[in-house]
Amino acid sequence: MENPFKYGCVVSGDHFCERAKAEMEIRGFVKAGQNVFVQGERRMGKTSLVKKAVAGIRGERLVYIDLYCIGTQADLCRRVTEGVGRANASMPFLKRVMGFVSRLRPTLAFDSNDGSPKISVDTLAAEEPSSLDVVLTMLEKVAADGKTCVVFDEFQDVLRLKESERVLAEMRGRIQFQENVPYFFLGSVRHEMWRIFTDSKSPFFKSAAAYDVGEIDAADFSRFLVSRFQKGKRRISSALAGRIIETVCGVSGDVQELCAALWDVTDSGSEITDADLPAALDVVFMRERKGFERAVSALTPTQFTVLQGLAVYPGAKVFGGEFLRCIGVTNTGAVKKALSRLEDHNLIHVSGGTYKFTDSFFRQWILKGV
Ligand SMILES: Nc1ncnc2c1ncn2[C@@H]1O[C@H](COP(=O)(O)OP(=O)(O)OP(=O)(O)O)[C@@H](O)[C@H]1O
Ligand SMILES: [Mg+2]
Description:
The protein is α/β, with parallel strands linked by helices. It contains 16 helices and 9 strands.
């Protein structure tokens, strides 16, 4: 049987553990036409949640636009047009969209695998400054039916554009008057999302409500994991499922990755026990080892000591006497500097007032070496 756990992609159907309250809250925003910026740690389930919630609203059309690693304005125009084109495969709709962006010399093609439409635009034409207005106007016209929800994913990557301020200002100018259209802006780089939405100098300042996607309810998630294992004739106690969730700090994608590895190291019909966990973690470490080693080799001894301390004492008061005594560093200035470097390396971040590992497998790998 195929591995019943999925990670590294958007999940739906029976790969999706119900999170009724969060879905209801997202639907509430959609129905109210409320703009929202959605953040949460990497792999926590932001994209899957928003897609699932919108799909559950009868008659609601989802325009999904992924801005991951966007490089140029032409890229932005292309992704908006493609996103709109994917929202509805009917010919009259596609023709209407092509008409709205005719200045960008659009072409229509159909995917040979699943037949989904893809509207492309000419790169040179899309690079002209005025083209952004053309695609944003098209988006506005498409959404004017009051039954469309627009999702910009990895929205912070707009900041990568050379003229990000102008682009943001233009987008804001367009979006603010569309009262009935819910715009969702998803992102995982917290400080950049904050910069866009809460810095008084940003065009998007106070333009959207904040929504945080946290952990899936542990009891629901562990029930879900038990039933997924059962599907493949493997038994696991809900207590152990709970420990798996804790091991990776409740990050949905990491939970599924660890379970996929557990699946790989156990046999059909077996009872999974705590003794299987180290072998499953080793499967993940084998994939990630090179990156982990590279990250550690770039650290100074003090930075590494502080990192080890954070791995062993999660949630510790990092400037408290006890933590400093335990890690054997007495100079708070040195600890402060080390923490700031570790944050720059994106190995840790502040969440809920404490330092957390950005990758919980990395923490487990450090713990293994302590
Ligand atoms: N509701 C859910 N039930 C079970 N697993 C989930 C759920 N949501 C997300 N996951 C797991 O997390 C992984 C990442 O999901 P998703 O891409 O939606 O998260 P994300 O927060 O958008 O991630 P990124 O930060 O990479 O954009 C999925 O592949 C899946 O393993
Ligand atoms: Mg995502």
